[in-house]
Amino acid sequence: xxxxxxxxxxxxxxxxxxxxxxxxxxxxxxxxxxxxxxxxxxxxxxxxxxxxxxxxxxxxxxxxxxxxxxxxxxxxxxxxxxxxxxxxxxxxxxxxxxxxxxxxxxxxxxxxxxxxxxxxxxxxxxxxxxxxxxxxxxxxxxxxxxxxxxxxxxxxxxxxxxxxxxxxxxxxxxxxxxxxxxxxxxxxxxxxxxxxxxxxxxxxxxxxxxxxxxxxxxxxxxxxxxxxxxxxxxxxxxxxxxxxxxxxxxxxxxxxxxxxxxxxxxxxxxxxxxxxxxxxxxxxxxxxxxxxxxxxxxxxxxxxxxxxxxxxxxxxxxxxxxxxxxxxxxxxxxxxxxxxxxxxxxxxxxxxxxxxxxxxxxxxxxxxxxxxxxxxxxxxxxxxxxxxxxxxxxxxxxxxxxxxxxxxxxxxxxxxxxxxxxxxxxxxxxxxxxxxxxxxxxxxxxxxxxxxxxxxxxxxxxxxxxxxxxxxxxxxxxxxxxxxxxxxxxxxxxxxxxxxxxxxxxxxxxxxxxxxxxxxxxxxxxxxxxxxxxxx
Length: 536
Fold this sequence. Notes:
Elements: H1 3-51, H2 53-69, H3 78-94, H4 99-127, H5 133-138, H6 145-221, H7 234-323, H8 327-370, E1 376-378, H9 380-390, H10 392-397, E2 401-404, E3 410-412, H11 414-430, E4 439-444, E5 460-467, H12 498-508, E6 512-518, E7 522-530
Parallel strand pairs: 2-4
Antiparallel strand pairs: 1-3, 4-5, 5-7, 6-7
Helix pairs in contact: 1-3, 1-6, 3-4, 4-6, 6-7, 7-8, 8-12, 9-11, 11-12
């Protein structure tokens, strides 16, 4: 049975029982209220019946006085009859549920009507100046006959009302006692039914939840789980999931141990490889520095000897001119000296200059990896300002507009940071499109989020240099940051090592550099540098 069904039953059954108990309580309460209303009506009937006879007796006394004195004004009191009629009508409404009492009220009404008709006749005789002797002869008793009938009926009415009042009072007492018993039974029944519900919940669901909670704690602490719960409800399903999760965790732990062993072995291998690479890199830098330094002397000698050969050729040319050789010999010597020798010397000087430039580039790359940085907070805005001022001649020559945005400071070496932006801005100037006005923008992106769980993570900042120049073809993108790779060599001179130096310098700062470009639309170089030192 599903938990939803169990929950509905645990709620529905006690609710039905409580509704039944409440129905009993409401029924007894309604009966008690009705009995209380009957008692109130009885009290009202007794009060009304006890007060109705006095106005009638006073009216009978006035009638007899009027008959004796002959004064009809004592008889003509219509308000008395209206008052008596209202009181009898009120009594009739109060005893509407008692037919015997209703008959007595009607008898009293008939007696009053008969006596009122008699007083009307007496009043007419008195107004006519005649004597009501006939009425006086018949009225020999202490009370007129009609009033005597009224009083007898009223006495019987009062006795019956008193009896009914006593019965209804006793009934009200019994019903109030029954109401109290019903209320006590409802409270006790509600407590019992909810206690039974709590017991059922504790046995059927509570204990199962305790087992489930214990299994969850065991799973969290890595201990073995208890036996799976039986049943097909959600608790059993969740317990089954916990057991499956435990089994998978054990498998994952075994795999993790294996992976950890492999990773440790791999880490040792990578550490060895990195050490080899570091040693090889250091050896390569030293080799480049040594070779470049050693090649300078032969190049200097070649430049010197080529100049001496040029001077010797000039002297030979003078000697040939002075020797007055025959025309044929003179032309031959001039062709040798001015053609083959001088052209060979020109090629030699060009090759020497090219080799010197390559050696200088190698030395720059070597120095970029060997220089010891002076770490401090560097104002990038000031650095870019100095770079722009230094390249004003090229900027004016190309009619370019350089926009410098707000540039937050970085943590690095001032000279290295200036070299980075000098190469990037100079590169952007060199590759502007002559067919349109050049625009270069230098700015910074929003800071990258820092992983707080990484103890040595540093906050990084991304800068960019954007231009609307010639752009970079897609096929050349992978070669941009390689040394001696030149694009548009027919437009821009150089050895192609500027971006390689930028990448080497940025990597030594713990950052990275990349480019986004579209041929014919321009390029954007991005540089990520640390904004603050790495946390220890």
